[in-house]
Specification:
Blueprint lengths: L2 E15 L3 E8 L3 E7 L18 E8 L5 E10 L2 H4 L2 H17 L7 H16 L1 H4 L2 H15 L17 E5 L4 E4 L7 E2 L2 H12 L10 H19 L8
Helix pairs in contact: 2-3, 2-5, 3-5, 5-7, 6-7
This protein binds zinc ion.
Zinc ion binds next to strand 7.
C-alpha cells in the first residue's frame, strides 16, 4: 500500500528526533497505530506549527514508502483541546488514555470504535477537565478499551460454572466473576464493584456511574489483571 494517504489521527506520542525532526505515534480509525516521521518540524517556520503534539486530533497527509515509518506531508488541526492542556489532572488522564490505547492496540488492525472512544474521552476532558479526569471516567474508558480489544470480562454469571448467584470474586485467569465454589485464584469482588463494572460498560462514557474509592480500586485491579493475563499487556494504573 505504498504511496500517499490521508487519514484522521490522534497523536499518542511525539518524540524529538535528530536536529529538527519528530517521530510520532498516531492512532487512526482504519490503520490502527501508525508510526510517522515529520521532517523539519522543529524549525521555527515549519508548516506544521505546533500541532504535532500529543492529543491533537488531526487530518494528516502521509506518504508510505519502504520504511516502517510513514512521512508526514501535511497536518490540519481538527481539534486541539486547549482547556485539557491547561489542567494537570486532565493532561494526566489524557496521557494514560493514549498510553493504554498504544499498548492494547499496537497492530495495524482497524478499530474505528477505539478511535471514536479516544476522541470522546479527549472531548470530555476538554469540556470539563475536572469531571473528565475523574477516576470513574478513567475506568469506564479502560473497560470499554478491553471490550474493544476482545478481552471483556465475563460479568453476568460465574465465568467458570455459569452460576448466577453467590458471586464472590474476580478471576483474571477465568476472565470474569466467579462464584464461591470456583473462587480459586480469584480476588474478592463485592456487589458494588460488580455493579460498577456492568454499569460503566453499559453506559456512554459521559455517564460513567459514581463509585467510592474501594470500588474504583477493585475496578482498576480487574482492568490491570485482565490486560496482563489475556492481552499480555502491562498497563499503567488508571490514576
Ligand atoms: Zn462457579
Amino acid at each position: 500500500m505504498a504511496g500517499p494517504l490521508t487519514t484522521e489521527a490522534v497523536v499518542l506520542r511525539s518524540m524529538r528526533y535528530g536536529e529538527a525532526d519528530r517521530i510520532l505515534h498516531v492512532y487512526t480509525p482504519m490503520r490502527g497505530r501508525v508510526g510517522a516521521i515529520a521532517k523539519g518540524v522543529r524549525r521555527s517556520r515549519s508548516r506544521f506549527g505546533g500541532r504535532l503534539e500529543p492529543f491533537f486530533r488531526l487530518q494528516l497527509g502521509l506518504h508510505e514508502g519502504r520504511s516502517d515509518l510513514l512521512t508526514v506531508t501535511s497536518a490540519e488541526t481538527i481539534a486541539g483541546y486547549p482547556r485539557l492542556r491547561e489542567d494537570g489532572p486532565a493532561l494526566d488522564a489524557a496521557a494514560r488514555a493514549c498510553d493504554a490505547v498504544s499498548r492494547l492496540f499496537e497492530s495495524p488492525e482497524p478499530h474505528p470504535e477505539v478511535f471514536n472512544l479516544l476522541c470522546s474521552m479527549l472531548v470530555l476532558l476538554d469540556e470539563d477537565p475536572a469531571a473528565g479526569a475523574a477516576q470513574e471516567r478513567r475506568l469506564a474508558f479502560r473497560l470499554k478499551l478491553l471490550l474493544a480489544a476482545g478481552f471483556m470480562p465475563h460479568l453476568s454469571a460465574c465465568a467458570n460454572c455459569g452460576e448466577r448467584e453467590a458471586i464472590t470474586g474476580f478471576s483474571p485467569a477465568a476472565g470474569g466473576v466467579v462464584c464461591g465454589a470456583c473462587e480459586a485464584g480469584s480476588f474478592p469482588l463485592d456487589q458494588a464493584a460488580h455493579t460498577f463494572l456492568a454499569q460503566a460498560l453499559g453506559r456512554p462514557l459521559a455517564q460513567a456511574p459514581p463509585a467510592d474509592e474501594r470500588t474504583l480500586r477493585l475496578a482498576d485491579r480487574v482492568v490491570l489483571e485482565t490486560a496482563a493475563h489475556h492481552a499480555h499487556v502491562r498497563l499503567r494504573a488508571a490514576a
